Backbone:
């Protein structure tokens, strides 16, 4: 469901945010859940949510109609982490993880029990960890030297590419053969149907001719008998 937001969807988004906060979860979790349910992008849901908060502040009638309490939806103003603060936070959280704590518990301890600060730390840590997974790490090596590993990698890449192309070509050829076979089968069935209709027509014609022939035989027999009677009569008169 993309495009314009309906009132029911807006109310459901704000309710989802309230529920996540009560469970100690981040608003990001609410955005992700809403995005999955309504086929939207999480970032689009987040942007709409914060924009809608500002719009509702200036539209009391709509706010009352939706039944939303904006006290539960205040926009948090945080100062950005410095690079040094970010590195220290990540190190501290990782230390807690090594001790067996979950990410949420580690962040709660580091925040001193402040749920909002805990969510802020948790979101920052997960964002950084997610970005690390999306970065490809390469070994540094001299740019003017090709190693056996490079050659093997190129060879395997070529093999995979050739294999993929061969499979795609085989599939395409198979589909073409299938379509051609179906076309020929349809033509054969149409020809058989036509021949069947012609056969039925000839059969009907044959039956009609057979009836006419029997009728002619009967007429000929009657005529012959009539002529024989006349000749016999003339012979007796003579």
Residues:
């Amino acid at each position: 469901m993309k495009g314009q937001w309906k009132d029911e969807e807006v109310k459901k988004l704000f309710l989802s945010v309230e529920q996540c906060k009560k469970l100690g979860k981040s608003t990001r979790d609410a955005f992700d859940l809403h995005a999955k349910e309504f086929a939207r992008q999480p970032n689009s849901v987040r942007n709409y949510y914060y924009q809608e908060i500002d719009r509702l502040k200036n539209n009391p009638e709509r706010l009352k109609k939706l039944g939303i309490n904006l006290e539960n939806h205040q926009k948090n103003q945080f100062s950005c982490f410095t690079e040094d603060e970010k590195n220290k936070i990540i190190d501290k959280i990782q230390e807690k993880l090594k001790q067996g704590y979950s990410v949420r518990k580690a962040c709660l301890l580091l925040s001193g029990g402040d749920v909002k600060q805990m969510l802020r730390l948790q979101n920052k840590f997960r964002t950084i960890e997610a970005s690390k997974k999306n970065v490809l790490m390469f070994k540094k090596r001299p740019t003017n030297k090709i190693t056996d590993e490079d050659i093997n990698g190129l060879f395997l890449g070529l093999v995979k590419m050739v294999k993929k192309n061969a499979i795609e070509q085989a599939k395409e050829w198979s589909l073409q053969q299938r379509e051609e076979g179906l076309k020929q089968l349809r033509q054969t069935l149409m020809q058989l149907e036509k021949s069947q209709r012609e056969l039925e027509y000839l059969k009907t014609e044959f039956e009609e001719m057979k009836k006419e022939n029997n009728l002619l035989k009967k007429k000929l027999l009657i005529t012959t008998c009539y002529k024989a009677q006349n000749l016999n009569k003339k012979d007796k008169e003579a």
